[in-house]
Design a protein that fits this description.
By secondary structure, the protein is an alpha+beta fold. The protein folds into 2 domains: about 160 residues, no CATH class; about 325 residues, no CATH class. The protein is built from 14 helices and 18 strands. The strands form 5 sheets. A 10-stranded mixed β-sheet has the order 11-10-9-8-7-15-3-4-13-14. It has a two-stranded antiparallel ribbon with strand order 1-2. Helix 3 crosses helix 7 and helix 5 packs antiparallel against helix 7. It is globular, with a radius of gyration of 24 Å. It starts with a helix and ends with a strand.
């Protein structure tokens, strides 16, 4: 059976890898596969075929952006920001290419895992063989790229660009230039309402709704000194070089508490998955918060960002014409760490990219907005430096899931307390279903079924399906102007260090 599978692999590849093997065997066993010699041409053809099958069977992952002409590389906004700097440093260039290769490997591993059996069969082998050949080709092409001269890689620096998530055509057709003023007024009205809500909740002047508190089920937290020591282990780009246990320990140290007004199952957080009918569901019997490590740049330095995502089953509709309600809702909470292991800034959005709020610490001074019609950093509250072993407590309103307050420490007694588990973000990109594995984030990184009615009114902003839940790297956060949650220069645009 093993031999039959390997023979089928060679037949289906149609000579793709012919002339690349070190021997003349008609099949490959595991040992031969490990020593298999691959050429640039055969690997380019392999990736073309893989991309075609991945797209045909709907398994493509839309998080990071592909690099045209370099099928073994994917780039995010952080790495894209280095595209000019790396040209003058061999070490920077090597780490830059290695990082883009790593992202593509991760994405392809997820895509291959999510391919159905028909897709795998069309590639000519079993899933493990497809994964191995893909990994071998990736390593080979990366090594090849690192030996090129500057002239041969000149086009690479121009191609490592992440397109923004705004459509200029939609803006033109929707008379965006005329709608900026009403858009700005609507944003300003929300800012005023949110400030009033934070002030009211800070005073304790709130309705007596039942609350459920979710706390991280972790013990033995790291001190800020221990965190700062871990933050010293970096590559030349400033990305952390740690073991998975160390990453986990850092996430546990800064995991927030969620105090949520609870008036129904739609206000409870849980693990995301799919029903037998392939609809998105949230299992509220398993409280879960997903974690993702990201990076930003501030005043010439790379700073790590801890991203926490909590999901609700829905934002229930308040009447038939509610344009904001729909299936699936959530909160993304982000902690930007300073070099000393303490938070520099907190900020938050919903997974639609909406409701971006900044919570700067006293280490930062805000830069004033250039004019009233520019969507600027909205900060309903400034936080003092986070005390040791005290977690931020995020108060969330019922149904809308708007943030209503953020404070350090927990005030008041709540009988309903549950522990949540921390799970890696990548688990959402490959979820087991009776029909095989499936990515939560579908076409263009948008969760199918999470669309909102507001998209019919806000499309002139240029954002694809405003209000829908979306994947990391696809969060446009401004209706006026252009801004993304993962912009590498986000902090530099809005803050100075005190």
């Amino acid at each position: 059976m093993l031999i039959r599978r390997h023979i089928w692999l060679l037949v289906a590849l149609g000579g793709l890898l012919s002339g690349c093997a070190t021997g003349t065997h008609s099949y490959l066993d595991d040992a031969e596969l490990q020593s298999f010699q691959i050429s640039s041409a055969s690997c380019q053809r392999w990736f073309e075929r893989l991309d075609g099958v991945t797209g045909k069977f709907g398994a493509r992952d839309f998080g990071a952006s592909t690099v045209k002409g370099y099928p073994f590389l994917r780039v995010n906004r952080f790495l894209s920001s280095f595209s000019r700097e790396v040209q003058g440093s061999r070490k920077l260039y090597t780490d830059w290419v290695a990082s883009m290769t790593k992202i593509d490997k991760e994405s392809r591993r997820i895509e291959i895992n999510n391919l159905n059996e028909t897709g795998i069969f069309s590639l000519g082998g079993d899933r493990a063989q497809v994964q191995k050949i893909t990994s071998l080709c990736s390593d080979y092409l990366k090594k090849d790229l690192l030996t090129y001269s500057n002239n041969e890689t000149a086009d690479l620096f121009d191609r490592t660009v992440v397109s923004d998530d705004y459509s200029w055509m939609k803006r033109a057709l929707g008379f965006y230039s005329l709608l900026q003023i009403p858009f700005s007024q609507g944003i300003e009205d929300w800012h005023e309402e949110a400030r009033a809500t934070f002030e009211r909740y800070t005073r304790g002047d709130v309705d007596g709704l039942a609350k459920r508190r979710y706390v991280p089920g972790v013990e033995g937290r790291l001190t800020s000194l221990e965190v700062s020591r871990l933050l010293r282990n970096r590559d030349s780009l400033g990305q952390l070089q740690l073991q998975s246990d160390d990453f986990s320990a850092i996430f546990k140290a800064f995991a927030p508490v969620f105090t949520i007004e609870n008036s129904g199952a739609f206000d409870q957080i849980g693990a995301v998955g799919f029903t037998n009918g392939q609809q998105v569901r949230v299992d509220v019997t398993r409280p879960t918060v997903y974690t993702h490590m990201a990076y930003t740049r501030f005043e010439g330095k790379t700073l790590p960002q801890l991203v926490y995502i909590a999901w609700f089953p829905a934002r229930p509709k308040d009447g038939f014409v509610d344009l904001l309600g729909g299936r699936l809702d959530g909160i993304i909470w982000r902690v930007t760490l300073d070099d000393d292991g303490l938070p520099l800034l907190f900020d938050s959005i919903h997974p639609c990219g909406c409701y971006h709020m900044f919570f700067p610490t006293d280490r930062l001074t805000s830069i004033a907005a250039p004019n009233r019609y520019t969507e600027w950093a909205f900060s309903p509250k400034r936080l003092t430096e986070m005390p040791e072993f005290v977690r931020p407590n995020i108060t969330v309103q019922s149904k809308t899931h708007y943030l209503a307050n953020v404070e350090f420490g927990i005030e008041g007694t709540i009988a309903d307390i549950q522990q949540y588990s921390l799970k890696p973000y990548n688990q959402m990109r490959s979820i087991a279903t009776p029909q095989g594995f499936r990515n939560l984030f579908g076409l263009n990184g948008i969760v199918k079924g999470s669309e909102r009615g507001e998209r019919f009114l806000l499309w002139p902003s240029g954002i694809r399906s405003p209000g829908a839940m979306r994947q990391w790297g696809r969060h446009a956060t401004a209706f006026v102007g252009r801004r993304h949650f993962d912009d590498a220069d986000l902090l530099d645009n809005y803050y100075w260090r005190r």
